[in-house]
Amino acid sequence: MKIIFATQNPNKIKEIQNMLPANINIVGLQDIHVNEDIPETAPTLNGNAQLKANFIWKKFQLPCFADDTGLEVEALNGEPGVRSARYAGEVKNDDANIQLLLNKLQNKPNRFAHFRTCFCFIHKNETHFFEGKIEGEIAIEKLGQNGFGYDPIFVPKGYKKTFAQMTLAEKNKISHRAKALEKLLNHLNNLIV
Ligand code: IMP
């Protein structure tokens, strides 16, 4: 089964392809020569995932899905949330985003946060949503070289290291995206049988 994942992010495609059975073939936007940035203007993660999946569905009428992820920090009333990618400004900059978040959390004792991923899957004009979440805390400083985004400052609950100090395989076992993807995969497996 060929499914379009509406993302330009090769890290995500790699991360997800590693978790999939061989009979499901994921194709990214670059593979189908869609080079434009699909607007993410909705106020919620679900809404943004749906915007992206809809864009591809209308263009290709092939099974497709999109995701949107946010880091939601308790002491900041859920910030950066849907603004995670562009928290520090309109140009995406992971280092600037991390620095801004660490600054805002200075002197705040509550560092609880979670990552939340929403998938929107469209097939045969039916739309389904799947969500995954991982609880954790924001570290005092950046630690680790792996991963991307806020990984160097996110310590998952029950661990003493950041996502960026984990291997991709370790992160994939517990991540927000893995949990959301598991739900999507159950759905896909039911479609295939
Ligand atoms: P997106 O919706 O997946 O594009 O993610 C929005 C923002 O959240 C981006 O700035 C990403 O860097 C960040 N982000 C998404 N997933 C992760 C993750 O697994 N670890 C760290 N940051 C992430």
Tell me the number of strands: 6
| Cross-sheet strand order for the largest sheet | 2-1-3-4-5-6
Low-confidence stretches: none
Mean pLDDT: 93
Main sheet specs: 6 strands, mixed
Which class do the helix and strand fractions yield? alpha/beta
Spatial gap, N to C terminus: 12 Å
Please provide a written account of the structure.
It is a single chain. 31% of the residues lie in helices and 24% in strands. The protein is α/β, with parallel strands linked by helices. The chain has a six-stranded mixed β-sheet. Strand 4 (112-123) and strand 5 (126-138) form a beta hairpin. The longest helix is centred in the last third of the chain and has 17 residues, at 176-192. The chain is globular, with a radius of gyration of 17 Å.
Give a quick set of tags describing it.
193 residues; 24% strand; single chain; binds inosinic acid; 6 strands; 31% helix; alpha/beta; 5 helices; six-stranded mixed β-sheet
Secondary structure layout plus pairing:
Layout lengths: L1 E4 L4 H8 L7 E4 L16 H16 L3 E10 L20 H12 L6 E12 L2 E13 L15 E3 L11 H7 L1 H17 L1
Parallel strand pairs: 1-2, 1-3
Antiparallel strand pairs: 3-4, 4-5, 5-6
Bound molecules: inosinic acid.
Give a quick precis of the structure:
The protein has 5 helices and 6 strands; from the N terminus they run E-H-E-H-E-H-E-E-E-H-H. The chain has helices spanning 10-17, 45-60, 94-105, 168-174, 176-192; strands at 2-5, 25-28, 64-73, 112-123, 126-138, 154-156.
